[in-house]
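Sharing a chain and its predicted structure for anyone who wants a worked example. Both blocks are below, sequence first, tokens second.
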Amino acid sequence: MKRTIEFTDKNDETVKLDTVFPNAREAVNITFNFTKSDGSANVRQVVQTLNDDVFRDEKGQKLTWDFWQEHGGIFDAIPKVVDNLSTALGHTGFLAIIGEAYSFLQKQI
């Protein structure tokens, strides 16, 4: 599954990025791993995973941190790509089942 997201960068230009669905396990990890088990932010690791496995530039290449330095906009792009991943996972009810299991397991820790 491939979708395109758009956001306005720090230069007020519209940036288009392709996103690819990595696989169900990686998509779930991205969706649920914005915070670490201690409650602190895990944004850097999630962005690195998105750069490696989900975001693609106009040439189909993985993104690097240099891209975000040049354009900014990561906090505009993240919710859009997570929405795309959640929609894909939710299509068959898979996300609801995983969400319940994740919630149950967190309560057990």
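Comments welcome. The CA atoms of residues 24 and 89 lie 7 Å apart.
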